[in-house]
Amino acid sequence: MKFHTLIVWGIVLSTLSFSVVWAVTFSGFVYPDSGVDSKKMNITLKLGDAWVDPYIGHLGEDFIGDPGESIYAIADGVVKIVKDWPNCPKSLNHGWGPVLIIEHELEGENVFETKDTFITDNTQVNPKKVYSQYGHIQNILVKEEESVKKGQKIGEIGHVCNYSLDHLHFELKDEQGFNDDLFNGAGRGYSGVAQYAPHRYSPSKFIELNKNLIVGETELENIDIFSEPKQSWWQKTKNFFGNLFDREDVRQDVEGEKIEEKSEEKHEVVYDADIINEREEFDVLPDQEIEIKVRVKNIGTIDWARSDVSLNITTPTEQNKQFKHSSWLTSLRPALLDQSYVGNDQEGTFSFFIKTPDEVGEYVFQALIVKTGEWVQIGNEIFTAHINVLHDTDDDVAVEEALVGEALEPPKNGIEKDSGKKILDNIKDVVKTVKEKTEDVIENVVDVVKNIPTYFGGGGGGSSTPASDVEDVEEEVIVDVTSPTQPTVVINLSESATSTLYMSWQSSDDQSDIIYYDVEYRVGENEWSQILTHVTTTEYMYEIINHGNHNIRVRAFDEVENSSDWSISEVDIVTDWLKDIVINEVAWMGIAREEGCDYDEWVELYNPGETDISLDGWAFEVAYDDYGYTAVLQGNIEAGGYYLIGKYEDVILNKKSDSVFVEGTDFLDTGARLVLWNSELEKVDETDQSAGWFAGSMDETYRTMERIDPIVSGNNVENWKTNESIRYDVRSYCGQVYGSPGQDNDHNWYLNDIADNYIFNASSTLVLSSEHSPYIFGHDVTVPENYTVSIDPGVTLLGVDKNSSFIVEGLIDAKGDENNRIVFTSIHDINNDVESQPGDWQNIIIKNSGVFEGSFVDFFYGGNTYRYDSCTTCGANQVIRNEGGNINLKNILFENIFIDEEIGNDDAYVWSSGGELILYDSIFSGGQRGLVTQSNVDISAVGLTFLGFSSSTYPVELGNSMPVVWKDNTFTSNTLNMARISVTELEEDYTIENGSNFLFTNLNVSLSTTLTIKPGARLYLSSYGMLNVYGSLDVVGMIDNPVYITSPGRFGGIYFSSATGNLSHVNISNGGSFRNRSTFPMHSMSSAMVWSKNSEVLFDSCSIMESRRPGDTVRIEGGNTVFRDCILGWKNPYDKTYLSWEDNGIWTKYSTLHLDNVTFKRMNYAVQMYKDYQFTYENMRHSNFENMFYSLNAKKWFPSDLFSSL
Fold it and tell me: What is the rounded average pLDDT of the residues 87-94?
């Protein structure tokens, strides 16, 4: 300890010189995955989550990463356990593999904060010591009992436990939890805990509570209190008296200093300040408002704008927060500068109110000057106000003053650890008082000296005589009436921040050394607002409102108030902010109306650029007319990414706030000005909504205010809209969030509970427009009855998971066009995080009252197994399921349906039971089935293509009713190119059109009923199946487009019974197969493919081939039958099993038969006629009998003279 003695005009000053040194012993916490105070990895299991057993909670948090990623010590500490266990045996309740534990301990009376971090009552509250555990790791870099520092790399994530995701298992536990580990846990290689997460803290919550915990010790170190580099008050006094009698030009010295300082400014920008009234004392009453004015001087190298600096309270903050007045900007920041601008070597003030305590006593209020945004102190002085709160009756209080020369006695018992600052404050107070008293004396001396005449004699000496002997000399007074010249004004737009105007001006005055300026900014027609008043500076940076024309005017005046005319800038400059990052969404109203939920406020920032941006040192400001508050930002915002500033860390569930507002602050419902500053204190974005919020809602649902275009100004009211949607997996403790935090404002709308969450128009219609595409739909998205969802062309809808589905009780109207198709598909089609798979979403269910109308729509990757009728085993894979509603689809593409081999019964892209189904010009590609209908479905299908169905089932199953319309449909590259239909009885006239490919098990054409088969149609019959005609059969094929009647196997036959038939250009094949003779339609000893009894049938241009051998092709009993230009028989020779077996063409009795150019191939008898027959023929030659088994005519027909002309 040293004492300095200064003698000034006989005044003795004793000053003590020392400083306070702060030694840090604990420096807070970081995250184990990043080594900084924000995490980078996702967390899956958290503390207490059930995993192995619902009664055994997870013991910490799992940070998901890749093997080899670094792991860091979360705080200073000592390594206590290092175990390199080789594996993770599940038989021992899962193990750690390599694991280490670090001890973290606080000194003195300090403890860790643990509020809301543990879930079991036996966990220690506010411990002095905690333990961090790191499991499933590799490449451990530390040893037991080794000291580590916060953020030090200690190992890497390993791949040792065969989990589905590699991760760091991270725990924080109390001392008892650590002791348990010595016997069961990390000390044995597995958890060994069969309880619900005992003695554990939630790691992330604990880190957030304690990451800024700084603990240290105070020590004293001797230094000279007057050793500041700047000139002391004593040096200034000494210099004054040293120069006084030499008559040196003091102004010249001062100007020289200014010039020197200005030249240094080019090399270094320094913020520095003196607090002029460093100590004040007030005698006040309890609960009283008093105004304080802190006088400061800018002694740095850079000029101050009002937004550059502020006055903040010092620590301990709670001591100073007790004086908080409602006019303070925040609970930590009483005021900004009173002046809009304070230049170098100029003075300014901070004016503010404080509220005095209620209790009588002595109090201390302290504040310091800080640089806005960086929040570092400017200068090294602290303003101190001693507040004496008196009783109301103490009207006259004697204020005790410090005596000049009063001795200071050091503490008798030495200096205690916490007493250093108090001693220093006392010393500084006394020195300050002495300094003020001395300056008063000096000022009196100066006043006297100014009135002493001086004479200049030889040498450096001087002499004087009494004042009575001195003659007064009257000097000529010259009056200055010349105004400075009109200033020249130059304005440039900032290149780095487009919200800033750089302006400069210059004037001259021959009669005055000092010129002052007023600077104003145009705010309206002939309206100006002051920027600077009575300043000597000739340059300034001014931040203005964006998007507009801006004018500045300047006038000059001298020391005697001669003023120039105003000089107005001639150039209009259109400006805007940087907008590297923009204010993108504001939940100024909170989340919900419930108590507490209306305070869950948040703001979203957005990076519209192509590069990542660090937000370290940035600030987000919320300003009102007389106060405001600031959130200090940190971390990065990726290109195209988002950054959430929340009222709380978990204001949005599953999305941690990237930064948190100052505690206790909230948005006013009446509006505010929001400003984003970068680390260079440049304004990056602003939206001034002080007069009222541009958008947002507090009606039935609290809906956020969303920015429309990040490029357009945030001050443009047309650039903000009220939220219209919700987002997937964005919820809060207060329920659904009507906003898009962390997501695009215009896209990825989440369709769920749409009647409650979305705004339908007056006609109860919700329009899904392409400007908001893609949309995401969840489970059972219901379109209620009498509601409409209209989907515009070009819209994409993404199923968020395997249970994503629509339930249509009203109307879905999905009308795309040829160039802008509507798409229902998997969310992976857009995210590209994993490959899309069939079954990534489920289905669209049309209820009895529902309608689905669509055109130019694609359905991809749907059909995940749907359980219906509350049946756990009843399932189906369907994309569109019609339960009695109406469906009308045109130009549709179905692809990539999910196939569940264990189900299969009702699998189809489109399934319908009841209702109406209209399908036109659509493609069904791959899967089990394309289309399945059950009973009572009115189906019309035209121009459909069924392609690539490789299963053994039929691409189409049409139930027990004939389609209303079914034509021009194509079956290509399927295992079975046909549509199976369960109808057995045709009781109304029906026409089978081209492209039908119908397969019947059996089909009966009833009496008085006509079945017409058009060109190109294919009629299939199942094995042993029969087409029984009791009415009429008209087959009207064409030569180039015949009709086919056949079977995928071998059907029974076509049977005419008292019927009529007219068959032209028809190919009949693969029939004549019966289980036994008893199933023949007529009594016979042999089978046939075509049977006719008492019927009138004409076959014209027919091919009747490949009937089952041995047997007949046609058997006729009674009636009239005509064959014209037909071919009957077999293509290939027959290797008879028995020589007695016969293959014949036509067998007949009791009938009339006429043949006209009929060809018979590879058979015994072409014609056999018995009993009462009539036979005629024409155009029959030997060439009509090909490859007959016998050469003799008698063996070619019966009776032998049947063809007498041959």
Answer: 48
Q: Partners of 130 in the beta sheet?
A: 104
Examine residue 316 and say whether the peptide bond preceding it is cis (omega within 30 degrees of 0): yes
Measured CA to CA, the distance from residue 422 to residue 424 in angstroms comes to 5
Query: What does 453-472 look like in DSSP terms, one character per residue?
Result: -----STT------GGGPPP
Residue pair 310/348 in contact (Cβ under 8 Å)? The answer is: no
> Rounded distance, CA 570 to CA 281, Å?
52
pLDDT digit string, tens, across residues 189-227: 555 454 566 888 999 999 999 998 888 644 333 333 333
Helices (H), 367-486: 420-450
Residue 460, phi then psi, degrees to nearest 5: -95, 0
What is the longest distance spanned by two Cα atoms in the chain?
183
Fold match between 23-217 and 488-574? no
In whole angstroms, give the CA distance from residue 978 to residue 1020: 8
- For residue 468 the two structure tokens come to 């009575």
Please report the pLDDT score of residue 17 as a whole number.
37
Q: Which ranges constitute the DSSP H helices of 451-505?
A: none
Question: ∠ CA(1037), CA(1041), CA(1045), 5° rounding?
Answer: 60
Q: What angle do CA 106, 108, 110 make, to 5 degrees?
A: 55
Mean pLDDT across the chain: 81
Q: What average pLDDT does this structure show over 525-542?
A: 81
Fold of 273-389: Immunoglobulin-like (2.60.40)
Mean pLDDT for 309-337 is 85
Q: Mean pLDDT throughout 1086-1099?
A: 97
Helices and strands counted in the chain (H then E): 8, 98
Beta strands 788-791; 811-815: pairing state: parallel
| Highest mean pLDDT, choosing among 287-296, 482-491, 1088-1097 | 1088-1097
394-423: pLDDT as tens digits: 444 333 333 333 333 433 333 343 444 444
pLDDT the model gives residue 832: 67
Cα distance between residue 1057 and residue 98, in whole Å: 88
| DSSP state string for 737-788 | -BS-TTS-SSS-EEESSHHHHS---TTSEEEE-GGG--EEE-TTEEE-TT-E
Mean pLDDT across the stretch 978-988? 93
Lay out the sheet containing 153-157: strands in order across. Answer: 70-72, 153-157, 137-138
Pick the closest to residue 569 from 497, 491, 509, 663 (CA basis): 491
Model confidence, pTM: 0.55
Q: What are phi and psi of 829, to 5 degrees?
A: -65, -25
- Tell me which residue of 994, 858, 969 sits closest to 919, measured CA to CA: 969
511 with 556: CB under 8 angstroms?
no
CA distance 613 to 636: 6
For the chain, first and last CA: distance in Å? 150
- CATH number of the 488-574 domain: 2.60.40.10
CA atoms of 87 and 101, how far apart (whole Å) = 18
Q: Are 716 and 709 in contact (CB under 8 A)?
A: no
Name the residue ranges covered by the structural domains of the chain: 23-217, 273-389, 488-574, 582-734, 983-1206
SS3 303: coil
Pairing verdict, β 200-201 and 273-275? unpaired
Tell me the CATH number for domain 23-217. 2.70.70.10
Q: Give me the residue label for tokens 């329009």.
A: 767
What's 1038's DSSP letter?
B
Q: How confident is the model at residue 1044 (pLDDT cuts 50, 70, 90)?
A: very high
Residue count of the chain: 1206
Site of tokens 């899967």: 927
Matching CATH number, 582-734, of 3.90.470.20, 3.40.50.2000, 2.60.40.1260, 2.40.170.20: 2.60.40.1260
Q: Which of 114-128, 636-650, 1057-1071 has the highest mean pLDDT?
A: 1057-1071
